[in-house]
Design a protein that fits this description.
Elements (H helix, E strand, L loop, with lengths): L1 E6 L6 H16 L4 E6 L18 H12 L2 E7 L7 H9 L9 E8 L6 H13 L3 E2 L4 E4 L3 E2 L2 E2 L2 H30 L4
Parallel strand pairs: 1-2, 1-3, 3-4, 4-5, 4-6
Antiparallel strand pairs: 7-8
Length: 188
């Protein structure tokens, strides 16, 4: 199975910290799966200009092809001005409308206060649904108070991260079996 982790911001450290924790947990628990961490902070991604995602080059092509080839994507996003960052929206704009079809998508949101928990519900989930993604029902919401010196210190948050990973893996494997059975039934 191909898993992509997308850290959707070029500033701050909390989303990056969260995605590295997720990366370490997946590597330890599911070493047989192919895992790629896309950290936008470490890449130079072009602005979307309407081209086909394969017509880009460099980091932009790496990001788009990695996401298109993934079976499962876990997206990490901070909350900026009660919204998702423009860098993450740009990644979505680089991809075709049905980019997430037959993919399981999970979300880990970071925010400064509990007032921003609806950003995932009102902004990120509708985009993923529009792009045909199959969402893991529960996402992880992490507040500033859950971090201390680039570490997540809230055990409940770490438990929810474990559950997000487990649910995403189980859903991906189950969906792959169902989709393969459907494909096999066509008999041509």
């Amino acid at each position: 199975m191909k898993i992509a982790l997308l850290s959707g911001s070029i500033v701050g450290s909390k989303t990056q910290t969260t995605m590295k924790i997720i990366q370490n947990k997946i590597v330890a628990q599911y070493p047989e799966d192919e895992l790629t961490l896309i950290d936008l902070k470490e890449l130079s991604v072009e602005f979307s200009d309407g081209r086909n995602y394969l017509d880009y080059s460099g980091d932009t092509l790496h990001v788009t092809t990695t996401l298109m080839e993934a079976d499962m994507i876990l997206i990490g996003s901070p909350t900026f001005q009660a919204s998702i960052p423009a860098t993450l929206k740009n990644v979505f704009d680089l991809l075709p409308q049905s980019a997430f079809e037959q993919k399981i998508i999970g979300i880990a949101m970071t925010a400064g206060s509990p007032k921003h928990f609806l950003v995932a519900e009102m902004q990120l989930k509708p985009i993923i649904n529009y792009m045909k993604g199959n969402l893991v029902a529960n996402y992880v919401f992490i507040e500033d108070k859950d971090f201390y010196q680039a570490e997540i210190t809230n055990d409940d948050v770490l438990f929810r991260i474990d559950k997000l990973i487990e649910d995403a893996i189980v859903l991906t494997r189950a969906y792959q079996q169902v989709w393969q059975a459907q494909e096999d039934s066509y008999d041509f």
